[in-house]
Amino acid sequence: MGILASKLNRYDAAVLLRMSPYLIKWFTTHAPKKGHTQKLPFEQENGNGELLFSKSDLKQFDSYLAEAWPHERSARPTIPTGIEHEIKNESGHQCVICSHTNGVFAHIDDVHNSENNHPHNLIYLCPNCHDKYDNKKTISRTEIRAIKKDILDTRVSVWRAHAKLLTSVFTLIKDLENIRQKASQSTSSVYSCLSNELLTAIKSKTRLTTVDQTQQSLVSKLKSDLNSDNATDALIKTRTESLEENSLADCPLCHGSGVHNNWECPVCRGEGTVDKEDAAEIDRSGDEQVECPLCHGSGSHNNWECPVCRGAGTVDEGGASEIDLSGYKQVDCPLCHGSGSHNNWECPVCRGEGTVDEEGASEIDLSDYDE
Q1: Which residues pair with 260 in a beta bridge?
Q2: Which of 22, 212, 238, 333 would you call most buried, defined as having the most Cβ atoms within 10 angstroms of its Cβ?
């Protein structure tokens, strides 16, 4: 791969941005914001034509999507077709609350405040559930954000599996077990869709992965499980038995998911399992959770997902004191000058906070707000 060795493929990019490989590719050929020309930069590997991306380009483009979107006065910013496709697909083309197939694109944070069509700020709801959410009648923002997080966590597991060995199937099965447990505790219909997506990923992985002779019997058993009447129970049982036979145990930090605080688990390196004999001896003293020093446990910073804890609200105690918060020093918002409001609405730049991060304040484009 030469100089492109440090680049990420579409599935790695999907894990990093928590967006589908389809949408990643769509951004390379379409400018999402009306009137803008900015697309996602990429390079193409010679030979197989695979698209490759740099981490810095991906993060910069993600920040660009999180900025206020252009729109006509008194009109909402237009949602591009690529993002519409993404939101429909992640919900199974049905309302995430009641499963009705007649849906609309709802903003998790009010569009008149965020002016933002970032895919993480959108979810698919039927008109009735959308009305309940807008009026905060029976559907809360906390509930919607939790559902959106479960959707993204599940899809990230699927995308990560495409880039890993057969053992990644076990992390998918563990996710399937977790989703089933959440489904028993929630009235949301989206968990059935997520279970089907995980089962599809497991089926694809067992079909496409080349394994050695010692793993062939396991692959055959997993294929048999997928065709059984209760595939979920069968897969969970096979995983449990296989871990026992190979003297493995769920990672004591990530509990088998391969992910810790929305990052690859530092103990099992994303595998989800560790040697059974070693599990009890793993030093987790530095992994105890403490309140994030930036968002103070809320999971949000200036009404956005906290960039330090990535929305988890907590960080590892061992590394908390080393987190550099200098870039998050607050200064008056350049649009509302600290009042938190603009034209008698919540300020769209600081989202009512009155302040912004000093490090990025000089880069905020106020041209859309000329009176």
Answers
A1: 263
A2: 333
N-term to C-term CA, the chain: 51
Tell me the whole-structure pTM to 2 decimals: 0.62
Question: Which residues sit opposite 332 in a β-bridge?
Answer: 355
Average pLDDT per run of 10 along the chain, which is 371 residues long?
55 90 95 95 74 91 92 85 95 93 91 85 94 84 91 87 69 91 90 92 74 66 91 94 87 86 80 84 79 89 83 84 88 92 87 86 83 77
Sign of CA dihedral 253, 246, 235, 199: positive
- Determine the Cα–Cα distance for residues 21 and 254; give it in Å rounded to an integer: 25
d(CA 201, CA 198): 5
Show me where the domains of the chain are located: 1-67, 142-246, 324-371
- Considering the four listed CATH numbers 1.10.1660.10, 1.10.8.110, 1.20.1530.10, 3.30.70.260, the one that applies to the domain covering 1-67 is 1.10.1660.10
